[in-house]
Amino acid sequence: MKARRISIAVLFAGVVGAGFVAAFRSAALPEIAVSAGMAWLVFLMFVLALWDCFAIATRFMPYLSWLPQHRLPPWLHPIRSSFVVIAFMYGIVLGHFWP
Amino acid sequence: MATSGRSWDASRVARVAALGAAGLVLIGLIAWALFALRVPATCSYTLDWQAGGDASMQQDLFFAGQARQPRRAVAVQATLVVLLALVTVLLIYETIALSATNINWPITYYVRCFASSNPVAAGIGAASFCFLLGHLIWYPDSRD
């Protein structure tokens, strides 16, 4: 089970990274490449979520998501102080959107 | 920390109430922006802002303890699928719009315009958004 999750994570990261590299090589501007890469990442998450939707409903297919909070590795437990996460995200949002 | 199940202790009530309040603030801001906000004339296609990538951070992180309630888990998962599909479409639009800003305005431009004309409201909206998403990464303790 653990090996399967790790292999899925590595495969997912590789596919996401390949998409970002392709976007940066082909896009005229970096912001276009970032947007295209994010679209690719979210699309892959959509595919995994759709798979898991059928997996949960039918109990037939394997459950693929490794991101649900109860499956995070122990070294990520300090993140439960979610206000750190909120502050981090707030910084990203402010830095990204404020002119 | 109980994130699912039937027990409703005080801390869980407080967390759910805070999330509900943040959600209401976001919905209220969206409604205000749709129906009552007067967009300044300076917000137009002619503005030459630097565009950036869209920050979409949806994660499928709802599922602590959901295995005990498969029907509810399927409903939450289906909602996530719809949400991710919507975000994918929006990001594709954002990419297309960024490649030709004179034809379509990217979504980030609208957000930046709102942040420029209404910084307080935009700050409240950003805080509510981050509060909601930040809680999705809140790790449950071993009691779950």
Textual characterization of the structure:
Chain A has 3 helices and no strands. By secondary structure, chain A is mainly α. In chain A, helix 1 runs antiparallel to helix 2. With 144 residues, chain B is mainly α. Chain B has one domain. Chain B is built from 4 helices and no strands. In chain B, helix 3 crosses helix 4. The longest helix of chain B has 30 residues. Chain B is flat. About 16% of the residues of chain B have low confidence. Classes of the chains: A mainly alpha (99), B mainly alpha (144). Chains A and B meet through helix 2 and helix 3 of A and helix 2, helix 3 and helix 4 of B.
Topology, element by element:
The complex is a heterodimer of chains A (99) and B (144).
Chain A: H1 2-26, H2 30-58, H3 82-97
Chain B: H1 10-35, H2 70-99, H3 107-117, H4 119-136
Helix pairs in contact in B: 1-4, 3-4
The overall pLDDT average of chain A reads 74
Note poorly predicted spans of chain B: 45-67
Determine the number of helices of chain B (DSSP H or I, runs of at least 4 residues): 4
- Which value, in Å, is the CA radius of gyration of chain A? 17 Å
Strand content of chain A: under 5%
Number of domains of chain B: 1
The protein's oligomeric status is heterodimer
Biggest interchain interface, per-side counts: A-B, 48 and 60 residues
- The secondary-structure element order of chain A is HHH
What percent of residues of chain B are in strands?
A: under 5%
Task: Report on the biggest sheet of chain A.
Answer: none
Measured as a percent range, the helix fraction of chain B is 55-70%
Structure at a glance:
Chain A has 99 residues and is mostly helical.
Structure characteristics:
heterodimer, A: 99 residues, mainly alpha, 3 helices, 71% helix, B: 144 residues, 4 helices
